[in-house]
Amino acid sequence: MGERDEGFHKRNCLYTNCIVTNNRSLLGDYTNFNVIVFNGPEIINLPKEELPQKRSKHQKYVFASIESSDNYPICRDDFNSFFNWTWTYKLSSEVQWGYMTIRDENKQIVGPKIDMNWMDFERMKPVSEDVKLKLGNKTKAAAWFVSNCFSRSRRSELTREFAAELAKYDLYIDIYGSCGTLKCSRNEEDACDNMLERDYFFYLSFENSLAEDYVTEKLLHPLKHLTVPIVYGGANYTRFMPDSAYLNVRELGVKKLAEKMNALIENPEDYIEYFRWTNHYSYHTKAESIETDEYCRFCSILNEEDLVKRKSVYENFSKWWNPPSRC
């Protein structure tokens, strides 16, 4: 963002009176700053003496991280009663730093959020003829775009087990990237997504770690490109999708999942039903709108006088942040 407000102007934010800097001496005394943001992954092992030794009553200390709490847990007590706000992927954060926005058919933002109120499947309109036409051209079972082959979630091991079950039905997973034999360059992301929409019935939205609300672009790819996501993660996925839009490997297990996929591929009428939601909801990146851009939103809350004056603190921060039994 630089040491000025250019980033907020470039984004056409509603409020542009915020200045971002990593120069601690800019105001002479760091207690003069309204907000101090702490980068989650960098403070895990930061010595206590390198933390601010004094703070003003008006200051907000903010914990910020888009990385999973399972990969970057806070296993120390000195951050309890330390942070006032959080800026993370967790849906209970004051500002959400995530990958997607959900809009309804009136273009209003409806999620993701902790308590989603999805339209009942029975009330959803039938899939449009245009969508049916696109779905009818698919010929391949599943794709996975992945570059991190070693993860805490052990998704690579799960995929091998899953692939063995699929092979019993003569179905296969095409793995693109460093962990597979196929290539689709990140520099040609649109072409990769178009291929996904055109050719594949399913996409593996397997996260690298299991943590509450940790859902990344791995889910956005299939939802924006008419492919049924197969999810594997620690999230409650009903906060992100209608039940009728995806398959969950942790709920089904690989054997039943392979059986279900085969049945849907062999019965196109049933597969098509997984796209009824497209009549009523759409998925977007947060950067698509100043309403949802994280930086714009953060500057906005700094201009909400009542919110800034309100006293708040995460008394047991490690419990809020960490997955159960992580530390």
UniProtKB/TrEMBL annotation:
InterPro entries (UniProt xref): Glyco_tran_10_C, Glyco_tran_10_N, Glyco_trans_10, GT10-like_C_sf
Identification of the protein by name: Fucosyltransferase
EC number of the protein: 2.4.1.-
Entry GO CC: Golgi cisterna membrane
Subcellular location: Golgi apparatus, Golgi stack membrane
Family per similarity comment: Belongs to the glycosyltransferase 10 family.
SUPFAM superfamilies, A to Z: UDP-Glycosyltransferase/glycogen phosphorylase
Keyword annotations of the record: Glycoprotein, Glycosyltransferase, Golgi apparatus, Membrane, Signal-anchor, Transferase, Transmembrane, Transmembrane helix
Domain Fucosyltransferase C-terminal: 137-320
One MF term in the entry's GO annotations: fucosyltransferase activity
Pathway where this protein functions: Protein modification; protein glycosylation
The protein's enzyme class: transferase
Ranges of residues in domain Fucosyltransferase N-terminal: 9-99
Domain of life: Eukaryota
Membrane protein topology class: Single-pass type II membrane protein
Organism: Pieris brassicae
